[in-house]
Specification:
With about 130 residues, this protein is mostly helical. It has one domain: Globin-like (Orthogonal Bundle), CATH 1.10.490.10. It has six helices and no strands. Helix 1 packs across helix 3. It is globular, with a radius of gyration of 14 Å. The N and C termini lie far apart (about 35 Å). This is Globin.
Length: about 130
């Protein structure tokens, strides 16, 4: 039996392994090339880890507007339904590989909800 997510360290593992998948996917890489080129990737991982830590453990560390960040990205590289499908697939696969339990389930549910809201706000949601 796999453990449940129980700490920020667990979240950082998920985020790191998840981004390992994104960075080798030619459809997803363009969204992260600037972060990598500017040597901001580790900083980005910490920010995303803070975001999920706030969601799962009710901390107050993340200080950005996640929706605005994606709206900004969309002005340079069009986010499409397929990008969200890839994102959710990699995210779920990564969580499922390492963890199971209430927090793992909560993380996947929130990821699905966030993806749906973003697609709606970007006007790319397909039922």
């Amino acid at each position: 039996m796999k453990p449940d997510i129980s700490s920020r360290k667990d979240i950082k593992l998920i985020i790191t392994k998840f981004y390992d998948k994104l960075l080798v996917d030619e459809k997803m890489l363009p969204f992260f090339e600037e972060i990598v080129a500017k040597n901001q990737f580790e900083h980005h991982l910490e920010i995303i880890t803070d975001f999920w830590n706030d969601i799962l453990f009710d901390t107050l560390t993340y200080q950005n507007n996640v929706m605005q960040k994606h709206l900004n990205i969309n002005t340079f590289i069009n986010l499409k339904e397929a990008h969200f499908a890839i994102w959710v697939s990699y995210f779920f696969t990564t969580i499922n590989f390492y963890f199971e339990g209430e927090k793992a389930h909560q993380m996947k549910n929130r990821a699905s909800s966030i993806a749906t809201v973003m697609k709606l706000k970007l006007n790319i949601y397909k039922n």
